[in-house]
Amino acid sequence: MNSVSPNPSNYQGFHNEWSQPCLQTQPVIQYDYGKTLSEGEFVDIGYLNRPPNVLLTALTKLISRNELEGSSLPRQVADMGKKYPRKCQEWKYQEVENDQLFVESFRHPDIDRSCKDIHCAESEDRLVSRKPRRSTDPVVHCGLIASGNQVMRDAVTREKLRKKHGVLCFEMEAAGLSNNFPCLVVRGICDYSDSHKNKRWQPYAAAVSAAFTKELLQFIPVVQLERAHRVSFMTKKS
């Protein structure tokens, strides 16, 4: 799963939303790959390859369908819970009271204790004020994904990269894959890339991203899948 880079002026809640690359030339940036200038400034130069056209075409069709008919994600996630009852509670939306975005200046005081245990949210000035969402259904966001070798859990760095590149979220796997195997990166959102990270939303984010991937694959013609390179072939070649 991955972490979101929230823009408080635009977004109303991210734990039940998720992100995947947009129809742009460089959908993933390796934010920890670059060069240091003489003045000590770090310049990012690690943009990764563009997804294959067959996947971008399928994504365009899916987005258009959803704009007209609505998304099937809520139904698919609910069906997953019915099929696997033991996971039903984990795959459900985890409620708004567990979706808290802290101001970037407030760091988690004790890494060995949870936000609930040490009452991180007891003061309103620690939280970013956001308008209530109209629906708790999953929402798809298209945009730039930042990939790196370390977990992003610093709100100040998160905000710096968000403002500089327009990054929507952070993750750790795409940087090692995108340039060797043509793919479209789909990520489920489970936290806010800050020191208050927890795992409560991970199962839900995984379920939503899996449901979207299934939905996306339905828009790819079988004949094009048969022509595509297999993962094993691409791995051996690289």
From TrEMBL:
Protein name: Unnamed protein product
Domain Nucleoside phosphorylase: 130-209
Pfam families: PNP_UDP_1
GO molecular function, one term: catalytic activity
Domain of life: Eukaryota
InterPro entries associated with the record: NLR-like, Nucleoside_phosphorylase_d, Nucleoside_phosphorylase_sf
Organism of this sequence: Aspergillus oryzae
Residues forming coiled coils: none
GO term, biological process aspect, one: nucleoside metabolic process
